[in-house]
Design a protein that fits this description.
Layout: H1 5-19, H2 46-58, H3 73-83, H4 93-106, H5 109-113, H6 119-129, E1 139-140, E2 145-146, H7 165-181, H8 200-218
Antiparallel strand pairs: 1-2
């Protein structure tokens, strides 16, 4: 069984809480001047966000992180390529959640849920993807030796961890329990491939069907 957004929810919420200070889908890295930011990130297409990020890079800004999961320009390019993502799609909550789930998959989240890797290994993988998350024990980081509770990227003058190791472990534990029980599973939305013709009406119907299924499970 493949994991859904319901299973990943505790981990995604934890990431968003600390990467974007509360899970704001419209936030960009705090060092970007307001005059250089889109008025509302989620109304932009993925292609437009990539253009914003390219501009920020050309101006020498230290980070191009955007959205709830603070996806940087190089990561966004990789996601689009790997998922064959339609860049005309809005960079809205649904899109950002899909992309974060793709990153989780790449970091071994499915293997963790299936019991193939332990919580420590999963926490390290998450810390390598999201700089605000801590490593679970002393280890070699990206720039120097880091202690338990520090960011994998500590020492770069830009990043530090915010949640405790216990918070990460708790989120992972809840996610695995949800996966094991298999209850209240909400279907994960899929990204339309480039060139696909998906109408707004079709998307609305799909969301309505998923919501109806979820409410049916809850009753």
């Amino acid at each position: 069984m493949s994991f859904t957004i319901y299973h990943a929810g505790p981990v995604l919420d934890l990431i968003g809480k600390y990467e974007s200070k509360g899970g704001d889908y419209d936030v960009v890295w705090g060092g970007i001047p307001k005059s250089m930011c889109p008025e509302k990130l989620t109304t932009n297409t993925v292609a437009q966000v990539m253009q914003w990020q390219a501009w920020w890079r050309s101006k020498g800004l230290a980070s191009t992180a955007a959205g709830k999961y603070q996806i940087i320009s190089t990561t966004l390019k990789d996601i689009v390529s790997q998922m064959r993502f339609d860049t005309s799609r809005k960079f809205d909550a649904g899109t950002q959640d899909l992309m974060a789930m793709h990153l989780l998959t790449g970091r071994g989240f499915q293997r963790y849920l299936d019991g193939q890797i332990d919580a420590d290994d999963m926490a390290i993988s998450l810390a390598k993807e999201w700089a605000s998350l801590p490593v679970p024990h002393d280890m070699q980081g990206a720039n120097r030796t880091v202690k338990a509770g520090q960011s994998y990227y500590a020492g770069d003058g830009l990043n530090k961890a915010h949640p405790s190791v216990a918070e990460v472990e708790r989120a992972l534990s809840i996610a695995r329990e949800r996966y094991r029980t298999g209850s209240d599973t909400v279907p994960t939305p899929t990204a339309p491939a480039k060139g696909s013709d998906v109408s707004v009406f079709t998307i609305i119907i799909a969301i309505a069907v998923a919501l109806a299924a979820y409410l049916g499970l809850k009753s």
